[in-house]
């Protein structure tokens, strides 16, 4: 088909299927560098935080900071559970060992809005936990990619809508089976004006529907009236995987406003009929942040579908993988990009949502900045208007060798602002219960290829990747207190023990990509990357996440495995650094020791920092929810959760009381108990209001 | 040593210790020493060959020798183990200092074995032909 004919057909197809809202996007096909008139989507007002938690990341800047001050280090010991709500969404059938809800509610007005692990939308009374409505989109177990996760939902108020009009305010979520769903925030009824009866099919333009290969687990970013979403493309399956395309949909109509396919820079609309968005490209499985004023959306991109071998990557994939990309939210036009790993063959995809801050500079001025944590531990601080780093970033020489020495990058960027990286491992860091298992790990250490950070993948022997793919920082992201000027970052400190498996050996092992096995047959029980086929490349990949010893289940590296750190925002200096998590639910052979000793466990999930001077965080594998004094790092309160707290907590105000809330959903890979509770804490009613703060919005 | 052995000999329980219980105890501790010692010896030699720590090979050897000497009902087992244990403590603090989690694999099991060896000491004293 000629180019002109293709364009014409696309125009017709789009206009017919999606309505007039698509006209500008389709019109952009005629030029290589399309620019939509900015007046079309003016900056709106962002939702005020204060006593609310209107966005997944807290406020519109994704700081995870609450200006509430009722609960303080002095009175936190009297914090008590006020209510507990159960979503009822627990694993059944082949979803066993695949649950990791990771849910963080939002709070707007007097309601909480959340999704369960399998995308049931729920509204609760924020003060009492009483259910107001629920909408079950009936997601099949087969759609679960690696985990049944729904990290959250997004709220949108239609500008100029009559307050009592249907869906004047709406809750929008992406689902595991790749639907974008909008319901009325007041009733939970599907929004008839959005897509086809409240739903948009995200499989459009992606290709063959393989349940579980393409799934949304993160809340969309809504900026300038555009719902921006990527999707999780299940890692390591095949080179010919669903596209990592990022799409923007009109928050009112659900019409496609733009599509950003990094390998098709001049195309802004859907691919021509019969074609797909470019397959196998880096995706965005985590949450974007945005600047409504600048009209930019900031996309933390992941890696190409084949994570540990790069020989088949296109130049575009190499240029964009593991980068933060800023797009014009109204048009999908790229404004800038910043790559954190060159030629990423370590699955160091950007997992954290980036946070917006006004960075104080010498002379009292401040710069609109964006703080970007990474899995390899570096924290980058960029000017969010330009993507330029505000602190030195050095290109440092890294080890060569491996199976593709000629293609590896000779250098990698290292942030001189702050790094969560620890000194390189030595044989003496190996651990165990007894000298015998410690010796086993020492032998593995000596047998493996290891030359510090960015040791390239090898096949003839194992290689050590440190830090592993859980970070550094993962999707829990960082919390930033702009008043105190402090970044609170929890992190993992664990290596992975990996090996590339030659194709012949992988075939003998029966490793097959998700599109060649029965639906729902994959995932869950094993760790991500433990025997991933990487079909289309010469190697499959075997990842021993955490580098664990068979039989005892202990990790080869000595503790701590995770910590939490306070960092001075202006300078990047460490203020305090503590191990996070106790040994109470951990031990050899998976037996809990019930030891109240702080060991520093693996952790997954982020924190909240409050004006009252507290950091609230669960995340660790000890199933404790705790409050930490932000000044000292000391744990000043804790409570045992009924399941693993691998979720970001929130803080909000209702009926004059400050609440902190967490949804302990557990996590199959972190081996914590699965649950369906939403638990809210506050000070006893007679004490609420006696704190230092006013308990309300600033 | 002679005072210790005479104390044991005059104890009212020594008669019982001379019988089955004590012997089985010694054999059990010997088997523990061999079960840990043999793989530590073999693995330790391999680790040294790989360029790793030189601690494990001699430590494994000490454990194996302790086990063999225990099976021979020789009191030298205790001396060999005390030497192995002392070396272990010195090495552990040299390598890991006062990082207590790091000392778990280095010191806990060896200390348990030390207690076990000391536990069968009375039975050994009764069994060693040199003390009869």
Automatic annotation (TrEMBL), chain A:
<protein>
    <submittedName>
        <fullName>Membrane-bound PQQ-dependent dehydrogenase, glucose/quinate/shikimate family</fullName>
        <ecNumber>1.1.-.-</ecNumber>
    </submittedName>
</protein>
<keyword id="KW-0560">Oxidoreductase</keyword>
UniProtKB/TrEMBL annotation, chain B:
<protein>
    <submittedName>
        <fullName>Uncharacterized protein</fullName>
    </submittedName>
</protein>
């Amino acid at each position: 088909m000629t180019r002109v004919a293709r364009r014409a057909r696309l125009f017709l197809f789009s206009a017919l299927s999606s309505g007039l809202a698509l006209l500008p996007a389709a019109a952009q096909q005629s030029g290589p560098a399309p620019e939509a008139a900015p007046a079309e989507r003016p900056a709106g007002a962002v939702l005020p935080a204060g006593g609310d938690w209107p966005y997944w990341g807290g406020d519109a800047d994704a700081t995870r900071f609450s200006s509430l001050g009722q609960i303080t280090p002095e009175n936190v010991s009297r914090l008590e559970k006020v209510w507990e709500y159960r979503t009822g969404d627990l694993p059944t059938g082949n979803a066993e060992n695949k649950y990791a809800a990771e849910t963080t509610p939002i709070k707007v007005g007097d309601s909480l809005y959340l999704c369960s692990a399998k995308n049931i939308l729920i509204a609760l009374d924020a003060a009492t936990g009483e259910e107001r409505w629920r909408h079950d989109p009936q997601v099949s177990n087969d759609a679960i990619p690696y985990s049944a996760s729904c990290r959250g939902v997004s709220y949108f108020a239609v500008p100029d809508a009559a307050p009592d009009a249907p869906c004047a305010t709406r809750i929008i979520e992406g689902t595991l089976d790749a639907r974008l769903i909008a319901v009325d925030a007041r009733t939970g009824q599907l929004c008839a004006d959005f897509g086809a009866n409240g739903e948009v099919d995200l499989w459009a333009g992606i290709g063959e529907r393989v349940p579980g290969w393409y799934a949304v687990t993160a809340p969309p970013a809504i900026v300038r009236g555009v719902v921006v979403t990527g999707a999780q493309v299940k890692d390591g399956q095949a080179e010919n995987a669903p596209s990592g395309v990022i799409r923007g949909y009109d928050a009112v109509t659900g019409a496609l406003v733009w599509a950003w396919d990094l390998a098709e820079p001049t195309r802004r609309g859907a691919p021509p009929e019969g074609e797909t968005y470019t397959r196998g490209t880096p995706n965005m499985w985590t949450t974007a942040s945005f600047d409504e004023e600048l009209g930019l959306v900031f996309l933390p991109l992941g890696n190409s579908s084949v994570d540990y071998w790069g020989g088949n990557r296109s130049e575009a994939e190499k240029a964009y993988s593991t980068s933060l990309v800023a797009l014009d939210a109204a048009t999908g036009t790229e404004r800038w990009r910043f790559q954190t790993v060159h030629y990423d063959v370590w699955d160091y995809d950007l997992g954290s949502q980036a946070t917006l801050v006004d960075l104080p500079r010498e002379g009292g001025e401040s710069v609109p900045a964006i703080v970007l944590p990474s899995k390899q531990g570096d924290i980058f601080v960029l000017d969010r208007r330009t993507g330029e780093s505000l602190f030195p970033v050095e290109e440092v020489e890294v080890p060569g060798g491996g199976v593709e020495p000629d293609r590896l990058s000779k250098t990698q960027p290292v942030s001189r602002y702050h790094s969560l990286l620890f000194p390189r491992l030595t044989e003496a860091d190996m651990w165990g219960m007894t000298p015998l298992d410690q010796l086993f790990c020492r032998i593995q250490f000596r047998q493996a290829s290891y030359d510090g950070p960015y040791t390239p993948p090898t096949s003839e022997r194992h290689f050590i990747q440190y830090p592993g793919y859980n970070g550094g920082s993962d999707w829990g992201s960082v919390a930033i207190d702009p008043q105190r000027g402090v970044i609170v970052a929890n992190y993992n400190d664990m290596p992975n023990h990996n090996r590339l498996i030659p194709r012949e050996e992988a075939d003998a092992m029966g490793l097959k990509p998700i599109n060649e096995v029965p639906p729902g047959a994959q995932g869950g029980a094993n760790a991500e990357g433990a025997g991933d086929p990487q079909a289309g490349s010469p190697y499959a990949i075997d990842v021993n996440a955490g580098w664990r010893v068979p039989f005892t289940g202990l990790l080869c590296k000595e503790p701590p495995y995770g910590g939490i750190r306070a960092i001075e925002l202006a300078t990047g200096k460490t203020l305090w650094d503590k191990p996070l998590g106790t040994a109470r639910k951990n031990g050899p052979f998976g037996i809990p020791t019930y030891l109240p000793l702080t060991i520093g466990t693996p952790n997954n999930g982020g924190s909240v920092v409050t004006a009252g001077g507290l950091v609230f965080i669960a995340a660790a594998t000890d199933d404790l929810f705790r409050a930490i004094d932000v000044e000292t790092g000391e744990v000043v309160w804790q409570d045992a959760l009924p399941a693993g707290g691998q979720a970001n907590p929130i803080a909000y105000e209702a009926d004059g009381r400050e609440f902190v809330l967490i949804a302990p959903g557990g996590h199959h890979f972190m081996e914590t108990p699965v649950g369906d509770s939403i638990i809210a804490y506050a000070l006893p009613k007679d004490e609420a209001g006696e704190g230092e703060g006013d308990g309300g919005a600033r | 040593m002679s005072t210790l052995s005479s104390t044991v000999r005059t104890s009212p329980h020594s008669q019982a210790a001379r019988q089955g219980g004590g012997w089985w105890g010694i054999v059990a501790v010997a088997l523990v020493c061999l079960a840990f010692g043999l793989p530590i010896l073999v693995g330790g030699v391999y680790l040294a060959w790989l360029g790793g720590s030189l601690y494990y090979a001699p430590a494994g050897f000490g454990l194996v020798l302790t086990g063999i000497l225990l099976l021979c009902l020789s009191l030298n087992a205790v001396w060999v183990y005390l030497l192995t244990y002392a070396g272990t403590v010195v090495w552990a603090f040299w390598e890991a200092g006062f990082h207590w989690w790091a000392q778990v694999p280095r010191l806990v099991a060896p200390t348990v074995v030390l207690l076990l060896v000391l536990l069968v000491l009375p039975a050994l004293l009764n069994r060693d032909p040199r003390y009869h």
